[in-house]
Amino acid sequence: MSLTGFLLAAVAQLSQEAACEPWQPLARDGLHDPEAAGVPMLQSPAEALSVLPRDTAGNKVDWVRALDTDAIDPRESLDDDTALEVLDTEIVMRDTSTLNWVLFPHRPHTQWLACENCHESPFVARAGANPINMGKILDGEYCGVCHGAVAFPLTECNRCHSVRPDSVSARDVETTDPGETR
């Protein structure tokens, strides 16, 4: 199946899921064994997640807004002596064929994770050092380590492919080489 075919099928699946109730009970979610003795002791997704800001995809929670509104306050680290360094830089990736360019914002990522979680693996912290493409992401590499697994799904194309090339001035194009921080 081509990448385009896969994405169209994934979007169709997402639309079908969006029409369903947002959170399936654990005994019917296809992940938990409904016969397992521990399932009734677990908190239901609807109970846990319905108090958080809603989203239209994935687990239906807008985690960035949850952070920004203090609906959640995640631990900075499993180690009490590690503090997060929240970065407010962005990276523009222009090697996107005919799609909009990708804007990677460090801020929402570094509100959750220390730099060491991503650098130097899976990402080398040097412009042009990461041969990222959708095939690799769909295979669980680079962004796909989290997106599609624990972060918003890969069917939300416009969340990453958000920069229209014709909306950027010539000066900005010259200063935003693929993978360059701006």
What helical percentage do the residues reach? 25-40%
What is the strand tally?
3
Spatial ordering of strands, largest sheet:
2-1-3
User: What is the strand content?
Assistant: 5-15%
Determine and state the CATH class of the largest domain: Alpha Beta
Largest sheet: 3 strands, antiparallel
Distance between the termini: 36 Å
Give the low-confidence spans: 174-182
Q: Please provide the ordered H/E string of secondary-structure elements.
A: HHHEEHHHHE
Principal-axes shape call = globular
Mean pLDDT equals 82
What's the CATH H-level superfamily name of the largest domain?
A: Cytochrome C3
Number of contiguous helices: 7
Task: Outline the structure in words.
The chain has 182 residues and is mainly α. The chain has two domains: 1-51, no CATH class; 57-181, Cytochrome C3 (Alpha-Beta Complex). Helix content is 26%, strand content 5%. The protein is built from seven helices and three strands; from the N terminus they run αααββααααβ. It has helices at residues 3-19, 45-49, 63-68, 106-110, 134-138, 157-160, 170-175; strands at 90-93, 102-105, 180-181. A three-stranded antiparallel β-sheet has the order 2-1-3. The longest helix is centred in the first third of the chain and has 17 residues, at 3-19. The chain is globular, with a radius of gyration of 19 Å. The two termini are 36 Å apart. Mean pLDDT is 82; it is low at 174-182.
